[in-house]
Design a protein that fits this description.
Elements: H1 5-15, H2 26-36, E1 43-45, E2 51-55, E3 63-68, E4 73-81, E5 84-90, E6 102-105, E7 108-112, E8 133-136, E9 147-150, E10 155-157, E11 160-163, H3 166-182, E12 191-196, H4 204-213, E13 217-225, E14 245-251, E15 257-259, H5 262-274, E16 280-285, H6 294-297, E17 301-308, E18 316-319, H7 320-335
Parallel strand pairs: 3-12, 3-13, 13-17, 14-16
Antiparallel strand pairs: 1-2, 2-12, 4-5, 4-9, 5-8, 6-7, 6-9, 7-8, 10-11, 11-18, 14-15, 14-17
Length: 345
């Protein structure tokens, strides 16, 4: 398959329509496994729902390339009457972007409630968790804990794609395209492609999969932030269309942080430079990823981020060149022998 911008838009557009909020990833896991089986017969789905595909021969510890399959979303948690239900957030849902968003409530159409402008007060602010509600037909028949996902449709504008759940279905598309490349390729060591679950809530999927695979190193393909809109300029240098992002540091709060392995990140920079591929660099407060699980497992890891505008909103934006360049970098990385990743040398 030629991975031009039209192909990426179509492929990602298909993936973002598959439900898979954290904890409910079976539909997207089945799809990913079916696609991967077109390129290798060594594909499995583990007890948590992670999809693991192995390429290449030999007993050397593999290189793992991971992309999380799950998304943020909502769960119905109470009946409110008058064809409305209350919900609880699953993952870091963007509250300010929610009102008026079309959703699917366990497969039936719904709409996130929004106050009529004629009834809005001057002191109205963002909805709280307690104020979030959905309109949907026959709401009284909806089972408590029914999953809810965005029903917004992908839209193309030149080289940009707006779609729900680009975090991280864009990364899943890259994983599938990489599988196509790996089929029959001569590799310096085996490669495991892993679609993980529960990244948006627990990161338990990645921990379980990596503890099982025990790779020599792990590369995480995930959506990251950009700083190229009016409200974000000046906070960083990452821009859409500038290439994949090699992140050095993530931090949320307390002891919830992550550091890239410096030798592995330097290796990715060298691979990109040798291939004339664009890349960007960043260190981010307020963002976390599956990569945090490698610390307890002592696995060298790096993140290859895909810049997104409006991350976790019902429509996110990605520059399709960034998706293509992410694939190009990963293709070069799996073909290059890993350097000595021992520390203190």
């Amino acid at each position: 398959m030629a991975h031009d911008h039209d192909t990426w838009a179509d492929w990602i557009g298909e993936l973002v329509q598959l439900p898979g909020i954290a904890g409910y990833e079976d539909d997207i896991a089945r799809h990913m496994a079916a696609q991967l089986r077109q390129h290798t017969d060594r594909v499995s789905i583990d007890p948590l729902g992670n999809v693991i595909a192995r390429f290449g021969d030999g007993d050397a510890p593999p290189l793992a390339v991971l992309a999380h399959m799950d998304t943020v979303g909502l769960l119905v948690n109470r009946h409110l009457g008058d064809d409305t239900v209350g919900v609880v957030r699953v993952g870091g849902v963007n509250l300010k972007a929610l009102p008026g968003t079309p959703v699917s409530v366990g497969g039936r159409p719904g709409l996130i409630g929004v106050r009529s402008q004629h009834q809005a007060g001057s002191s109205d602010s963002l909805p709280t968790d307690e104020q979030l509600y959905l309109h949907t037909a026959a709401a009284r028949d909806i089972e408590i804990t029914t999953p809810v996902w965005y029903a917004t449709r992908p839209q193309r504008s030149g080289d940009w794609l707006a779609a729900p759940y680009l975090d991280n279905r864009a990364g899943c598309a890259v994983l599938l395209a990489l599988a196509q490349h790996l089929a029959g390729a001569a590799l310096p060591r085996p490669v495991c492609l892993i679609g993980t679950v529960q990244e948006e809530t627990t990161c338990a999927g990645a921990h379980h999969a990596l503890a099982d695979v025990r790779p020599a190193a792990a590369l995480f393909v995930d959506g990251t932030v950009s700083y190229d809109t009016p409200e974000t300029r000046g906070r960083g240098s990452v821009v859409g269309g500038g290439g994949p992002v090699l992140t050095a540091f993530l931090y949320v709060s307390g002891l919830n942080g992550w550091h890239a392995h410096p030798g592995l990140r330097a290796h990715l920079k060298q691979v990109a430079q040798a291939g004339g591929l664009p890349y960007q660099q960043d260190a981010v407060h307020g963002l976390m990823s599956d990569a945090r699980v490698v610390t307890a497992l002592a696995i060298p890891a790096a993140i290859v981020g895909i810049p997104l505008r409006g991350k976790h909103a019902p429509l996110e934006l990605v520059h399709l060149a960034d998706v293509a360049h992410t694939l190009a970098l990963l293709r070069a990385a799996v073909a290059a022998p890993l350097p000595d990743l021992r520390r203190g040398r």
